[in-house]
Amino acid sequence: MVVAAPSAEYALQHLIDPETCIRCNTCEATCPIDAITHDSRNYVVDFAICKNCNACVSPCPTGAIDHWHQVPKATPFTLDDQFSWDTLPPPIELEAGAQVDVPNDVRELTEIATAGQGGPASPPWSASHPYVNLYSQAKPAIATVTGNYRLTADGASADIRHIVLDFATTAFPVLEGQTLGILPPGVDQNGKPHHVRLYSVASPRDGERPRYNNVALTIKRVTADHEGKPVLGIGSNYMCDLKIGDQVKVVGPYGTSYLMPNHPGSSVMMVCTGTGSAPMRAITERRRRRRALNEGGELLLFFGARVAEELPYFGPLLKLPKDFIDINFAFSRVADQPKTYVQDRIRERADKVVTMLQDDNCYIYLCGLKGMEKGVIEAFRDVCREHSLDWDALKPQLLAKSRLHIETY
Ligand code: NAP
Fold first, then answer.
1. Which CATH class is domain 10-113?
2. How far is the CA of 272 from the centre of ligand 1 (A)?
3. Ligand 1 centroid vs 369 CA: distance in angstroms?
4. What is the pLDDT of residues 360-378, one digit of tens each?
5. pTM of structure
6. What mean pLDDT comes out for the span 314-336?
7. Domain extent listing, the chain
8. Which of these, 52, 143, 163, 231, could form a disulfide with 103 (CB 3.0-4.6 Å)?
């Protein structure tokens, strides 16, 4: 490839592979100049806007973002072209001697991204090696449903389920904090197969049942959209209605950074709302199974739900010993009680939180509602200020040391 003068007839166009994209919105949320957009199926990059800064490359959990095609500068792929794709088109054959305008930083930054050195997207130094992209939409793994239990009380307004999938003899290695994709059967309003739905794994790496080749998911049946209008979520209703023995198409696993530390003495602070508890359950259960090894380290959990009856894993959490995990529930809709959010509990536990924020062996995980992220960061800022610490100076250090991990939707 030739690094060319600006007059080169061809350019590298940044494209997203629709086959491996899991629609997690990370790229669109990361792009500093709004060059990435999406429709109901595909995430796409606008050639006219993208400056190849590569900010989106490193955070992408699947590598779907990591594609550049040589295109005639005058006729790059349009947004409509990209929206219509199910797979990336084959690379264009260039004429002999054709010059390609390569943005100076593309290759260098791509190498950095693929080496996994992007600051916020690095896992804790002691995290185990994650496997990703073992199964694609073209070649999914087939799992059998071996459990589908309602976690929320019968009278509760939310139907949240603990669903167990067994992979039998198919290898599907996952670490706590990773996600997998489910392919719901059927087609969308355009007659195309439904896109992949992403769920965090709620079981530890050695299986929901130790040494079984199975995983657990925490799924809430979606019955309304964000405005409260009645809508039946395609993926969640498919999953929540599954019967024992049903077969499910699974893709992934995904995720290379939202992983737990493994070194003895490492502590974990977890903040979650609702089904954002899935990765926290996996981390807690991993640590619970290793308790006898006395590896040290603490677990601090902040867990928000409307009422106790809607809090997934409420019962089992209450049974965990206090010297194993320090649990702080926040209920927002209990009759005759003030609305309490996880950020309120964080403020109440300021001393403990600040001690853990300053402990280089403590790793912090947020998962759940997008709105919670802002509130929790504000609470961290407040408790730091109370203790004469500057959160805005601390946060970049936490990210540089891969100690702060956020997954909010
Ligand atoms: P939810 O029941 O609607 O809310 C859980 C709690 O969070 C409620 O007490 C709610 O209070 C409170 N809350 C609302 N806004 C808040 C804010 N700004 N700050 C702090 N707390 C706030 O939650 P959900 O429906 O289960 O949603 C969970 C989220 O986790 C979803 O966005 C989902 O995509 C995500 N997630 C799911 C998985 C999975 O594997 N299933 C994995 C990762 C993430 P109110 O009384 O005010 O509503």
1. alpha beta
2. 8
3. 4
4. 999 999 999 999 999 999 9
5. 0.86
6. 95
7. 10-113, 141-254, 267-408
8. 52
